[in-house]
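Notebook, student rotation project (T.W.).
Task set for the rotation: take a protein with a known small-molecule partner, predict the structure of the complex, and write up what can be learned from the model alone. Partner molecule chosen: adenosine-5'-triphosphate. Sequence and SMILES entered below by T.W., checked by me.
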Amino acid sequence: MNFDDDAPDLRSAHVIVVGNEKGGAGKSTISIHLAVALLKAGHKVACIDLDTRQQTLTRFFENRRSWAAKAAWPIELPRHCAMGRGESSDVRTNEAHEFGLFAEAIGAVEHDYEFVVIDTPASDSYLMRLAHSLADTLVSPLNDSFIDVDVFSRVNHDRSQRGAVAHYADLVLEARRRRRQVDNGVIDWIMVRNRMATFASNNARQVALSISRMAGELRFRVADGLHDRVIFRELFPIGLTALDPIEQAAAGLSSSQNAARREIDGLLTALDLPGRAPGIEHMEARRLWHDRVANYYRELGAAG
Ligand SMILES: Nc1ncnc2c1ncn2[C@@H]1O[C@H](COP(=O)(O)OP(=O)(O)OP(=O)(O)O)[C@@H](O)[C@H]1O
Ligand SMILES: [Mg+2]
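Predicted structure of the complex:
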């Protein structure tokens, strides 16, 4: 099927927003690993840190940059933009200031970069909503816990109280509506399980069931992401990841390195981003991606 008639005007940058209103779900960890994996695959990557308070992604790349200055092997770095905070006491002035900075950051990379990875804070704001409506791929990490599920769809023992669309999911549905109106684009929303336990508990199975029930209604895909591994957090001070040749930086880390690499690779495959087929130019890959994803959600809609 050909969707040329309603194809959006695609920019070169495929925007990956990592978002979830639940604090500590793993947004920054996933952003870090996605950005480094894409860099290592040879893509031109830009990052934007929308978490103006914690600035985790910014801190990671500062650490990586200083490590790169003395490392014996080349270390890939993205173009990175940290958003400054509006410091006025007037909310509207701050919003206008932050909008200006964000528009500038996006404008600077949307035509020259292949991927933009945006890490977001665990809060709702005008800027968060704007960023979500720009996403091509929205990655929402969540832990195997009903508390995490409740941010998307209300969890309750009473069937009649269960399943109401919760605040963050509502934000995403609104972003999708806006996106359709603005450029007829689609947002591929993937729920990525994070900090999975090695042995699946009954609770983890119940949570997985609950997530798969939500998937049809809210229209997201589900991917197994990362297990809970020390290696996903211990390299932060030196700005490295399991994807880097860390055996040269720290002895004794390699036992979990391969498993971590396989997980990140599996996550990238599950995200099904444009550009993974050899011999296909990025823009062509973007168009193929759009047709594939639009078709997927159209069929899901028709079936629903
Ligand atoms: N797969 C994992 N294995 C081990 N530790 C993890 C994993 N994912 C995240 N963590 C740890 O969990 C904590 C929260 O992760 P992270 O900061 O990435 O979450 P976040 O969603 O960005 O949080 P916030 O909402 O505060 O921005 C951190 O200490 C991080 O190192
Ligand atoms: Mg964070």
